[in-house]
Task: structure prediction
Amino acid sequence: MISTLEKEITFRFLKARKKDGFLNVISIFSFIGISLGVAVLIIVMSVMNGFRTELINKIVGFNSHITVKSYDNNGIQRDKLENNNLKLISKNLIFSNSGEAIILKNNTSKGIVLRGYQAKDFSNLTIIKNDKFKGNNSLLDKDFISIGNELSFSLDLKIGDEITLMSPSGVETIIGSMPKQKTFIVTSIFNSGFADFDNNIALINLDTLDDFFDFKKKDRNLEIYLKDPKNIEKQKEIVQKIFDQEYIYTWADMNSSLFSALKVERNVMFIILSLIIIVAAFNIISGLTILVKNKTRDIAILKSIGVLNKSIVKIFFLIGVIIGTSATIFGIFLGVIFSLYIENLRKFLSSTFNISLFPEEIYFLSTMPSEINPSSILLISICSILITIIVSIFPAFKAANLDPIQSLKYE
Result:
């Protein structure tokens, strides 16, 4: 417990006097350094959390949560679709297939991935339901195609235009095998938010795709859309038990290297930015050491009137902890405010200095995301206060070990 006397002395020592000017400067820099370190950590962690969440939402919005592929020529067994466990976790079950083709338009050719869906399933896709979708959201019949907005820009395509696709599967003619070609009409343009997806993937009717690539119905994949796509690993195990003879992969498996890199980067940034707090916290040692030097006479008098060594330790320990804790709280306030308005700040700096701080073509996102995670803030706060506690111990014990006789002798 902390006595009233210890509290009074602690707050009196915290008040800087004119002769303690240099000490006051050190305390201010310690406070500012810890505050900025905590604030920067919160801002960086919030942006990285937001970036990860946005990536997940866009990837999950464009790809199926779980995909089932058949190993053999028998295809996926349809009776397994009636499994009760599968119905409990799934929101939608869609058959699809895909293949690579070449677009021919205005003397321009471009490689593209074609995905095939039934017309009835097309309107259930997440990218079709968003506000940026243009065209008929239920029209994906034979000879119709839905393309991404990036592809429409690069090839100058509009709804109603015709494009020619070339398939790698050949057609036998009198002069030999020729690539199969087919003309499609653009009936809709989607926007997934991922420039890479929008520029390289197009959607056509599943039966048309099978015919175009000479696929069979048993070659089709099963796309499973889950009610909770983030809790993917446990649900993958459930699906694996149901389709025990098929190959199962999830959106997380397809992007494992990307999210592993993000996790490593997040942890490294946390360690590097924590050094700011550590360096600032070491200023507390300097400040408290100088304070002990300046208060040598006061400490000696306190010991002379019977104040115990443990009370002296508490007093100087409390001074360090109060500086560190108040700086941490202020840093949390700054970090949360900046995290909430980071996009407004980015727009202001971009317009003021005419620079691009968050180019969409590099980061895949048009706005700077931010997601405040209470657990991250709690971890940062605990680390900051713990560092402050550790660095406050040495000066506190040094003050308690002063010899009052020797201290008063030279005063």
In short: The chain has a mean pLDDT of 79. The radius of gyration is 33 Å.
